[in-house]
Amino acid sequence: MADLNKIVEELSGLTVMEVAELVKSLETKWGVSAAAPVAAAAAGGGGAAAAPVEEKTEFDVILTEAGANKIGVIKEVRGVVPGLGLAEAKKLVESAPQTLKEGVKKEEAEEIKKKMEAAGAKVTIK
User: Fold this and answer.
1) Strand order through the sheet with 59-65
2) Is there a contact between 100 and 62 (Cβ–Cβ < 8 Å)?
3) Model pTM?
4) Number of H helices, E strands in the chain
5) How far is CA 111 from CA 57, 62, 114, 116, in A?
6) Alpha-carbon distance values, 116 to 12, 27, 100, 112 (Å)
7) How far is CA 4 from CA 12, 20, 25, 69, 86, in A?
């Protein structure tokens, strides 16, 4: 059996053009196509059930605009982001768009959005 580490090292030293030529050579020698599995999977998916799409469980809450009631929004930001002082909250609100919370559950993200919009801010959830 060939020394796989040596092969990996040699392949790592190839340029993109050399890799493309190597792929073509291997396709010709082995009678295969690198694109065939992708096309076959796409074509075969028509009659079969699609793979389940993984539901997103973590969301980011982004303050997109402070709105007219900036003071109310600053107060809400201080409540949403723990440990944030008045000056930091003001700076965050004035430099919108800014991320308020990252990786929160959908329910928490919706609650934050509801509070921020009640204070007059515009918020998006991603």
Assistant:
1) 98-104, 59-65, 122-125
2) yes
3) 0.52
4) 6, 3
5) 15, 13, 5, 9
6) 51, 57, 10, 6
7) 12, 20, 20, 65, 59
User: Rounded to whole angstroms, what are the CA distances from 48 to 28, 41, 114?
Assistant: 31, 10, 41
Q: Which two structure tokens, joined as six digits, stand for 51? A: 């793979």
Q: What's the half-sphere exposure (Cβ side, CA atoms, 13 Å) at 105?
A: 2
Return the ∠ at Cα 12 (arms to 10 and 14), rounded to 5°.
80
What span, in angstroms and rounded, lies between the C-alpha atoms of 124 and 94?
16
Q: Could you report the per-residue pLDDT of 95-126, keeping only the tens digit for each?
A: 878 888 888 888 888 888 888 888 888 888 88
Q: Is the bond into 52 cis (omega within 30 degrees of 0)? A: no
